[in-house]
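Q: I'm a student working through a structural biology exercise. My instructor gave each of us a protein and asked us to get a predicted structure, then write a short paragraph describing it. Mine is polynucleotide adenylyltransferase. I'm not confident about reading structure output yet, so if you can add a plain explanation after the C-alpha cells, that would really help. Here is the sequence I was given:
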Amino acid sequence: MDDKSVRCINGYRVADKILQLVPNQEAFRETLRFVKCWAKRRGIYSNVLGFFGGITWALLVARVCQLYPNYCFSQLVNRFFRTYDQWNWSKPVLLCEVVESVPGIVGLKPWNPKTSIADKQHLMPVITPAFPAMNSTHNVTDTTKRILLDEFRRGYEVVKKVENNKADWKEVHNPFPFFSNDPFK
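A: Happy to help. First, here is the predicted structure for polynucleotide adenylyltransferase. I'll explain a few features afterward.
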C-alpha cells in the first residue's frame, strides 16, 4: 500500500490497538464517554481548532486506565484530570513504545523528536500506538495549550469538590460560559 492508503486505515488500527492495550475495556469506555462529553461542553473538542480530537481523548483516557488498572469509573475520572493537570508536557503521552520499523513496510517514518525538528516542536504530544506512530495533537498552539491546561485544572478542582460532597457531578460538565466570559478582565 502507498503512504496515503496506510495512513487512511490507521484510525481503525489505532482504535483496535487502544482496546488491546487497556486493562478494562468497560471502564475505559465509560470514562471516555464522560471525558468526551466534558470536552465538548467545555468547547475544547476540536482537532481542527487546535484542541484535542476524539482519538487524542481516547489515548489520554487509555493511558490513565493503564496507570490505574483496578480503578472504577469515578476514580479514573479523578485520575484523568489529576494526571493531565500535572503532566510534564515536554514528555509524550504513550501507550506503548514507539516501533521504529516493521518488516516489509518501507518509507513510513514514525514520530521521533530525536530525528525530526517538526516532531520536537510539538507542544502536547500524544502518540498513537500503531505503526507508524503519529502525534495526534500536531495542531495544538501555545494558546490552545494554555486553555487545555486551564480546563484540566478546573476539571480536577471540581472533581475534588464532588468527592468531598461540595459539588455534583453535573458541575464538571457545566458548559463554558462563552458569551458571559470577558477575556479582557
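A: Here are two points you could use in your paragraph. The CA atoms of residues 39 and 45 lie 5 Å apart. The mean pLDDT is 92. It's a good idea to check both against the output above yourself.
Q: Great, thank you!
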